[in-house]
Design a protein that fits this description.
Layout: H1 21-27, H2 33-48, E1 54-58, H3 61-67, E2 78-81, E3 85-92, E4 103-107, E5 119-123, E6 134-141, E7 144-150, E8 158-165, E9 171-172, E10 178-182, H4 197-205, E11 208-215, E12 218-225, H5 233-243, H6 254-264, E13 274-276, H7 295-304, E14 308-311, H8 313-327, E15 331-341, E16 348-353, E17 359-360, E18 367-379, E19 390-394, E20 411-412, H9 413-418, H10 427-435, E21 437-444, E22 452-459, E23 465-470, E24 477-479, H11 481-484, H12 491-501, E25 519-525, E26 528-529, E27 534-542, E28 548-559, E29 565-578, E30 583-590, H13 592-599, E31 607-616, E32 622-629, E33 631-632, E34 636-639, E35 643-644, E36 649-657, E37 664-673, E38 677-687, E39 692-700, E40 705-714, E41 721-729
Parallel strand pairs: 2-10, 13-14, 16-21, 26-33, 35-41
Antiparallel strand pairs: 1-3, 3-7, 4-5, 4-8, 6-7, 8-9, 8-10, 11-12, 15-18, 15-23, 16-17, 18-19, 19-20, 21-22, 23-24, 25-27, 27-30, 28-29, 28-31, 31-32, 34-36, 36-39, 37-38, 37-40, 40-41
């Protein structure tokens, strides 16, 4: 396509109008003398006019971006949202006359075609069809014309090239020719429309937030820089759509884009953004715990066009939130505590133990993760029956194949809650994550011909606890469990599971009901400061009117957050008498050196899992349960001003004391501040027990408003110490 003005020689020559003179004179025969004269003068003037050309075009980027809530993007181009008009100004070489065939043209790709919806032609002086792009002439000042261009609310999102053409040999290409078209949650006709402004601010425009990690009884909010407006992120999002081969006609569909992006963020099918790694060995990449935000990952991927090493579920979720918000789809990161991974399509999770109480990982691929982080996106579902609009679950962590690819969702939360698992997409899988039943098994003589499995008990309340996301407009956690499931044990909750089981490939024989056990094992535990012994009580409760004698075995294992036990660090066996309708406790203490020697072997945040297996002597009633104990870590102290003026330099000082009682090896400080500086890593070396370091970072205030700085400390022994501070730039 030619650029700039066409040379004068390429305009239609005057002689091209000569064949039209005779018919024009014939048409004038029936007119009065005065009317005919005016027509002749007009026709002559038209034939003597120069060919219509554009001398300049302004996309009014600053004005349009402000109206379209896109002025935060670190990208100088025109960025607008569909279903809402935007303004351009044309300066022509002569007045625009009725019948001038001038069109605004928007094109996508190397060979744009109207038949493939990669080429849009919008006439300036023609009545437009409903649902089509429109270009409306506004006021003009001399030869300068204002044009309001409006896309339909279901237009395909993408990066367009804007030109002006006469649909013939003339095309004008302005210097600022790139136009990015996004989804529009401010437009009532757009399927992603979100009514409340505070929610639009949170789920579309907020570029920082929190991801929730830990366990249901120890929830930790980790600050995360989503950074959807950072340099290169928008281009990366559209590059992903190109890379997975999404057709332009499909790019108007928010449901299909959400599903496609859940696949594009992982590498399993299309060499996408992130490589997942749960091995504990990250020697040839970045450990997942080192990341403080999404933009650094997307920028690296877009620059190198190679997948980034490495991510785990919260990193996948953080990146997917960034991608969806960047495209204009309201999105939030969701954490489900005690999250099930059902690999057998039966809505139950089988956990296996040997007689010593050690959990066996190699018998079943089912698991319960301490937490799993995925996403919700807000949209209508025109592909489903009424009643399923609103939040939809999507997940970029590669777990199970869906229609041949590692993608998940969008699954309507209302369908998940009510067990309507016949509705697309992957509703049954997400339902199992939040509401599967857990079955305990004892394996006698494992991995031998004499192997035998004994079902011990069913726990109907083990899965899907304290489902969390960041609250709207507040740095607080919001519990959204009720959006995903009915209250545990309620008739509605059991009915939902019963509905879902009808659609399972391997349904269990029954929907388990809640039964109060005669004997119950429980735990009284507290967080343990890293480097200290792990102490807790194992409590046995007797709900009968007779005395019970319990024989039990307890084992202590190190566990990763995805429920995988990696090291055994101790065990005990004992017997205890429990009086009728009372409880008895057994104290446990696990020395610090039994777990500390393994920490540097796994570059992950490890926990201690205590398993108990037992039975009563009197009735052989089985007992089985386990608890996860978390560590606490030393804090990072931050010294920095509360506010500075734009352009002013300021210093952030990060102070850390290692009070764990053991050395920290290969210690690193990772710091990132959106709108201030990109992710930086500083090598702090080995920090001896009781040692202190202080690092200073000098920044220059640039973007106005509140800015957040996130700092994280990692070492061979510790991977999860994080702090954030805010600064206001005026």
């Amino acid at each position: 396509m030619p650029t700039g003005d066409m040379p004068a020689g390429d305009a239609l020559p005057l002689t091209a109008h000569t064949p039209g003179r005779q018919p024009t004179c014939q048409l004038l025969k029936g007119l009065t003398r005065g009317e005919g004269e005016r027509r002749r003068r007009s026709a002559a003037a038209a034939m003597s006019d120069p060919a219509l050309k554009v001398e300049s075009l302004s996309v009014c980027a600053s004005e349009n971006r402000k109206r379209h809530h896109s002025d935060d993007y670190d990208n100088p181009a025109l960025i607008v949202r569909r279903g809402q008009d935007f303004k351009i100004r044309l300066r022509l070489n002569r007045p625009l006359r009725k019948g001038d065939p001038l069109c605004v043209q928007l094109a996508v790709g190397a060979q744009p075609l109207q038949s493939k919806e990669t080429l849009v032609l919008i006439p300036l002086q023609q009545t437009q069809l409903s649902g089509a792009w429109t270009a409306t002439l506004g006021a003009n000042q001399g030869l300068e014309y204002e044009v309001l261009i409006k896309s339909p609310p279901n237009a395909a999102v993408g990066k367009y090239t804007l030109t002006v053409t006469d649909k013939g040999s003339y095309t004008y290409v302005p210097p600022d020719k790139d136009v990015y078209l996004l989804f529009n949650p401010w437009c009532k006709e757009d399927v992603v429309y979100l009514e409340e402004e505070d929610k639009r601010q949170e789920y579309v425009l907020s570029d920082t937030g929190y991801l929730y990690l830990g366990s249901f009884n120890r929830i930790e909010g980790i600050p995360w820089n989503f950074g959807q407006f950072e340099e290169g992120v928008l281009d990366c999002c559209f590059y992903l759509l190109d890379k997975i081969g999404m057709k332009q006609t499909t790019r108007k569909d928010a449901v299909k884009i959400a599903r496609a992006m859940s696949a594009a963020v992982n590498i399993q099918d299309d060499a996408g953004v992130l490589i997942g790694n749960w091995s504990g060995d990250y020697s040839n990449g970045t450990p997942p715990s080192y990341w403080t935000g999404s933009s650094a990952i997307l920028q690296q991927y877009y620059k190198t066009k190679r997948p980034v090493r490495y991510g785990q579920c919260w990193v996948f979720s953080g990146v997917l939130t960034t991608v969806m918000r960047c495209l204009g789809v309201p999105a939030r990161s969701i954490t489900n505590f005690d999250s099930a991974h059902d690999t057998e399509d039966n809505l139950t999770i089988d956990v296996f133990f040997n007689r010593a109480g050690e959990m066996l990982n190699d018998i079943s691929t089912d698991s319960i993760w301490n937490f799993h982080v995925w996403n919700d996106v807000w949209m209508k579902r025109p592909d489903l029956p009424e009643g399923y609009n609103g939040w939809q679950a999507i997940d970029a962590t590669p777990q199970e194949l869906s229609e041949g690819s590692y993608q998940c969702g969008p699954a309507p939360l209302k369908a998940i809650k009510n067990g309507d698992v016949h509705l697309v997409y992957d509703t049954k899988f997400v339902l199992s994550e939040v509401n599967a039943d857990r079955i305990f098994w004892r394996v006698d003589n494992p991995n031998t011909p004499q192997q035998n499995m004994v079902k011990l008990r069913v726990d109907t309340m083990a899965v899907g606890k304290r489902i969390s996301t960041k609250a709207v407009g507040k740095n607080l956690r919001e519990d959204i469990t009720s959006q995903y499931k009915h209250p545990e044990g309620s008739p509605e909750e059991r009915r939902s599971l019963e509905n879902a089981l009808k659609m399972c490939l391997k349904p269990v024989e029954e929907v388990y009901s809640m039964v109060r056990p005669a004997m119950k094992v429980d735990f009284e535990s507290k967080e343990v400061h890293l480097g200290s012994p792990v102490t807790l009580n194992i409590t046995f409760s007797n709900n009968t009117t007779s005395v019970k004698t319990v024989t039990f075995s307890a084992s202590y294992q190190l566990q990763t957050y995805d429920g995988n036990t990696v090291e055994s660090i101790g065990s005990m066996s004992s017997e205890i008498i429990v009086q009728a309708e009372s409880s008895a406790a057994v104290p446990v203490e696990i020395p610090a050196d039994s777990y500390f020697k393994f920490l540097s072997k796994y570059n992950d945040e490890l926990q201690v899992q205590v398993n108990v297996l037992g039975e009563t002597k009197e009735g052989k009633e089985p007992l089985a349960d386990y608890v996860v104990v978390h560590f606490t870590y030393p804090a990072i102290k931050v010294e920095m001003p509360d506010s500075v003026r734009a352009g002013e330099k300021f210093t952030c000082t990060f102070i850390f004391k290692n009070d764990t009682g053991v050395p920290m090896e290969n210690t690193k400080l990772h710091v990132e501040g959106l709108g201030l500086f990109k992710l930086e890593t500083f090598d702090e070396g080995n920090i001896k027990a009781g040692g202190i370091f202080a690092s200073r970072v000098v920044c220059t205030a640039s973007k106005l408003g509140e800015r957040k700085i996130i700092a994280k400390i990692t070492s061979d022994q510790i991977s999860g110490i994080t702090v954030e501070r805010s600064i206001t730039i005026t």
